[in-house]
Amino acid sequence: SCLGDCQLHTSCGIQKCTTDFVSLTSHLNTALEDFDLEFCKALRAYSVCTYRNSKVCRGNLVYHSAVLGIGDLMAQRNCTKDGPTSSTNPETTHDPCNYSGDTEAREHQGAEKTPPTTYLFCGLFGDPHLRTFKDHFQTCKVEGAWPLIDNNYLSVQVTNVPVVPGSSATATNKITIIFKSYQDCTDQKVYQAMTDDLPAAFVDGTTSGGDGSARSLHIVERVSGRHIEMHARYIGTTVYVRQQGHYLTLAIRMPRELAMAYEESQDLQLCVSGCPTSERIDRGGHLPLPVLGKLLPWGKAASRPPSGYTLETATSKCHERMLVKDIYFHSCVFDLLTTGDANFTAAAHSALQDVEALHPSKEHWHIFPRSGGGGVGRDSKFFVSLGLLCLIRVAYL
């Protein structure tokens, strides 16, 4: 596996330190009067850069050679350890706590052409509906606590509880996010949200990680108690958490190379592999019709689905917020028929908004169910109507 090497390239910035030193000194002439002064300033900047990377580079031979070389050169030129340092051109300065800077570092390491960073998106909302890093869309039971993400940089766990007695439908009422300690950019930070408790701070009361002025990790409150954003600049990651009704939604964007940096023991990640087959409610991407007579008990005198919605009224309600009849629209209809909770309409709508804000590929924002298969989709009206007919018949048995 390339995990070790991949992590080395993304976190150890010794090559960039060396490149900056060369660029600062290549134009200096030993015949000039201020040569020693400028050379010492460049050496101090080189030393500071290596110190910043000391933790992540400790197993790197190039790093240790550079540290020894700096000491030798400083002794030869009688440079003091304390004193002014050179500042590199702002356009080429590598900020170790800015993930985009890592791309710049790789470019400066001699790669002729560095491919742009590939970002992945994962989202969870509603009953619950999961969109994986591979853009697979699933509807799952996953009752209890489940890991969405668990890699070397970030862990996200959600807890799902039953929505309606007698139904397999669940929704998220708790989210725990752990930003793992990284270089000098941030200490480990834990965020936790629960129904009716969506704080704009980490559990230790802080709103940022590392140096507050650098804002390498910080929380932004968009709507008090309803919508917060977490921006982890040092790993190029953005997380949105919302509360809609009594339940929570989550959306995340993360660089592929970091999202895929995990050990074999971290193989259960819903965002990476999707839900286990035994936990899935949908069939091959199609949402099953909620034949509520089988799922939900109600009195014999009932004359309509206990959700209060028919296919027509649920479709109309969802169409008020979502004009495109993609999988988010169909998820909305499914949730209304299953639960009768109109807040799931807002959850589906905001989930689509989060996709549009965070998903890197506009052409993939909308996912449409394949035709056939009896799901809630273009060809499924007959099946859903059949399901409603069944539940009405059951009501009068």
From TrEMBL:
It is found in: Cell membrane. Its main location: membrane. It is a lipid-anchor; GPI-anchor. Residues 80-114 are annotated as: Disordered. GO terms for biological process: BMP signaling pathway; positive regulation of macromolecule metabolic process; regulation of primary metabolic process. Residues 119-360 form the Repulsive guidance molecule C-terminal domain. GO terms for molecular function: coreceptor activity. Residues 12-81 form the Repulsive guidance molecule N-terminal domain. The keyword Ribonucleoprotein does not apply. GO terms for cellular component: plasma membrane; side of membrane. Transmembrane segments: none annotated. Keywords: Autocatalytic cleavage, Cell membrane, Disulfide bond, Glycoprotein, GPI-anchor, Lipoprotein, Membrane, Signal. Belongs to the repulsive guidance molecule (RGM) family. This is RGMB protein. It comes from Sitta europaea (Eurasian nuthatch). The lineage of its organism: Eukaryota, Metazoa, Chordata, Craniata, Vertebrata.
